[in-house]
Amino acid sequence: MIQFLSPIIKSGIGKSFKNKSILLSLVAIPAVAIGIYHQNNQGLRFYTASQVKMNEAAFIAPQLSPKWDFSPERILSDAKKIIDTSNDFYNAMVAIENPSIENFVIPSINFENENSLAINQLTFLQHVSKDKLIRDASLEATELITNFDIEISLRYDMFKQFDKIFNDLKDNKKYNDLKTATPKDYEIFKYVEKCHKDYVRSGLNLSEEKRNEIKEIKKRIALNSLQFSKNLGEQNEFVAFTKEELEGVSDDVMKQFETYTDEQTGEQKFKVTFKYPDIFPVLKTAKNPNTRKIAFNADQNKVPENEKLFIDTLKLRYQLGKILGYDTYANYNLDIKMAKNQETVMEFLVDLKDKLKPLAEKEIEVLKAIKKTEAQELNMAYDDHYYIWDHRYYDNKYLKDKFNVDLEKISEYYPVESTIQGMLKIYETVMNLKFIEETDKDLKSTWAGDDVKQLAVWKMDDPSKPEFVGWIYFDLHPREGKYGHAANFGMAPSYIDKDSKRIYPVTALVCNFSAATADKPALLKHNEITTFFHELGHGIHDLVGNNGIGRFNGPGAVPWDFVEAPSQMLEFWTWNKNELLSLSKHYKTGEKIPESLLESLIATKHVNGALFALRQLHFGLFDMKVHTTTDDNQIDNMDLVQLWNGLREEISLVENGDEMNKGYDSFGHIMSDSYSAGYYGYMWAEVFATDMYYSKFAKDPLNTKSGIEYRDIILARGGIRETNDNLKEFLGREPSKEAFLKELGLQ
Ligand SMILES: *[C@@H]1O[C@H](CO)[C@@H](O)[C@H](O)[C@H]1NC(C)=O
Ligand SMILES: *[C@@H]1O[C@H](CO)[C@@H](O)[C@H](O)[C@H]1NC(C)=O
Ligand SMILES: [Zn+2]
C-alpha cells in the first residue's frame, strides 16, 4: 500500500534486553571522548580535525538541510494540504484503466518518496518542539495523517490496481529475479510485491463480508491494546510496609515513599508504588525475604482488569490469522519477519534455553552461596532454595560486594562534547565516514536552535572526492515537553527522484542525556555512551541506504526481528577497554581514565547473563505459546497462571515458591502488534549482532575494511534483499549462535 513513512522510533529497544543497562541502572558510567575539537565563536565544534586540513570546498553539501520554521497554523494547513493532494493523487491512480509500471507504479513511488520528509517533519515536532502550541498542532496533524493512512491502506480500488500489476510481474524474470533484473527493475518488482502483500495481509483479497470482519477485528484489537496500556499507565496501586519491613532500603529511597498511619495497628506504613524508582530498590535491597516476596507478587499482580483484554485479544488475533488463511496468529505475524514461521522461532528459543541451562545453574550456585552466607550473618534460616523474589536482591548484592563499580566516578571522564566527538571518530574510522558540524548560522536550521546540532555526513572512500551521504541531527539533552527516552527518528529516506538524481536522507537522534549542572559540564554515564552508539547505529543505517526507493532504505526497511541487530552490534565498542580509554578525558584534569576503573566496569558486563537471558526466553516462549493456538477452545481452556508461572520456573530456573502470579497482565509488549509473537526478536537480533561482531571486528574493532563491508552489505542494502543472504555474504558462512553463547561464558 502507499503508506506514509512515519518516524521510526527505535528507542533502544535492545535496552530492555540488555543485561548491563538493567544491572547497572544504579550506577552510571559516562564515557570519555578523546577528540580534538576546535573552539570558535560559535562554541565547540564537533568537526574532527583529526584528518589533516582538507579542501573545505570539497565539503559543501549538495543538498540543503530541511527548514524548521513551522507555526502551529502551518502545521495543520500543511497536513490538510498533504491529505487533499494525496486524495487527488489516489483518485487519479485508481481511475487509470490499464495500470502499468510507467503510468501507475513509478508515479506511486515518486509520490511516496517526495512526501515523506514533509509528513515526518509535521509528525516529529510533537516530540521535540519547545513550543507547546507546535507540539499540540503536530499531535493533531499526526492524528489526521494516521487516520488518512489507515483509510488508504484499506482502499479496495488501489488494491485492484496493484493486483493487476503484480499478476503481470510475478513470473517475469526481467523483474523478479535478482540475478537477471536491473537493480531498478528489481526494486520496482519488490515495491509492487510489498504493496500487494500489505493489502493482502489487510484482507483486501477477500470478500467484502470478510473484509468487514477483519476491519472490525482490527478495530477491537486496537481498542484493547489502547485500554491495556492506559490501564497500565494509570494504575495507582501500591503495597505498604513498615520501616522495619523495609530494612536495607536506602534513606534516599525511603524519602520517596508516602507514609500513613495504619488504623488498626497504629503503625506508620510506607507506600511502595509499582513505578520503577519505587519498586526496584525494594526488590533489590530489602533484606527481609518476606517483604520482597510480597512486593514482587503485588507488583506482578497489578492491573488485574487487563486479563480479560488480553484473553479477548488472543481470540481476536487467532480469528484474524484464520480469516487470512493462517493456522495460527504467530504464523500470520512471522510471515514477514526474518524467522518466517513459528517452528523456526520455537526451535531457536528452545535450543538457546537448553544450551544456557548449565551456565545458569552455575550462576545460581554462586547466588545461593551468597544467600547462605547472608542467612548465617543475619541469623536467618537457610532453606537451600532460590526464589524469584530473591533474584534482584542477590544479583544486586553480588554486583555490589564483588565488583562495586563507581559509575558516577567513571562518568567524570566522559564529558559530553569530547566523548561524542570521540565516538564520531570511531564511526568515521570504522565506516570510512566524516562528520562535519554545520555552524554557519545561515545554513543551520533546527527545531530548537542551538540545543540541536546539525551535521553533514560524508563518505570518504575516495579521500580526494568526498561523497555526501546526508544530514544528521543530535538533540541530546532533556527539555521541557521533549521526548524523554532515546530514539532515532528517520526524517527523510534516501531515494532517487524522477530526474534520476539522488535525494539525500535526513535523520535525527533524540536522547535524554544528563545535562550540565552549575558546577559540572554534562557528563555521560556509561549506559548513555552505549545508548548513543546504539542510536547512532540506527541513524547511520538510515543515512547510508543505497536503494532508489525510500521505503527500502534504513532500519524501517528490514524485518522487525533484525532491526536492532546493527545497533546491538555497535554497542560492543562501548564495552572495549581500548575504545573506552581512548574516549576518556576527565572533565577537570583532562586525564585518561585509570584502567582499573574500566576493568571493574567491563567485568560486570555479563554477570548473571545466562539467568538474564533465560528470563528473556521465558517471555519469548510464553509469547509464542499463547499465539500458536489453533482454535478458540484452546484459548478458553488455557490456564494462563499455570502457563506463565510454570514456564518461568522451568525456563528461568528460579523457584515460584508457594505463590503464583499474573505477570502477563502487565506484559505490555504482548499487546503490541509488533511484539506479539515477536518478543523473541530481541534475542534473535542479539545473536546476529554478536556473530557479526566476533567474526569481523573483535580482533580489530577499528578495521575499516570490515567496517566498509558491513556498511555496504548489511546497512546500505536496507530491505531489498533477504537479510539472511546479506548476513551470509558478510560473514562468509551461515550465521551461528556460537559467538553469542561464548560471549555469555559458555565454552
Ligand atoms: C486472491 O484471491 C483469489 C481468488 O480467491 C485467489 O485465487 C488468489 O490466490 C488470491 N491471491 C492472494 C495473493 O492471496
Ligand atoms: C529524562 O531526563 C529528565 C531529567 O534528567 C528526568 O527527570 C526524566 O526522568 C528522564 N526521562 C526518562 C524517561 O528517564
Ligand atoms: Zn534500537
Question: How is the topology of this model organized?
Answer:
Elements: H1 13-17, H2 19-23, E1 39-40, E2 43-44, H3 72-94, H4 101-128, H5 132-153, H6 156-169, H7 173-176, H8 183-201, H9 208-234, E3 238-241, H10 251-256, E4 258-261, E5 268-273, H11 276-285, H12 289-300, H13 306-323, H14 329-334, H15 342-378, H16 388-403, H17 407-411, H18 416-431, E6 433-437, E7 452-459, E8 467-475, E9 487-492, E10 495-496, E11 502-503, E12 506-510, H19 526-543, H20 565-571, H21 577-583, H22 595-602, H23 609-626, H24 632-637, H25 640-652, H26 681-696, H27 704-715, H28 723-731, H29 738-743
Parallel strand pairs: 8-12
Antiparallel strand pairs: 1-2, 3-5, 4-5, 6-7, 7-8, 9-12, 10-11
Helix pairs in contact: 3-4, 3-5, 4-5, 6-8, 9-13, 11-12, 11-16, 12-16, 15-16, 15-23, 19-20, 20-26, 23-25, 27-28
Bound molecules: 2-acetamido-2-deoxy-beta-D-glucopyranose (2 copies) and zinc ion (ZN).
One 2-acetamido-2-deoxy-beta-D-glucopyranose is lined by residues 478, 484-485, 512.
Pfam families: Peptidase_M3
Domain Peptidase M3A/M3B catalytic: 282-745
GO biological process, one term: proteolysis
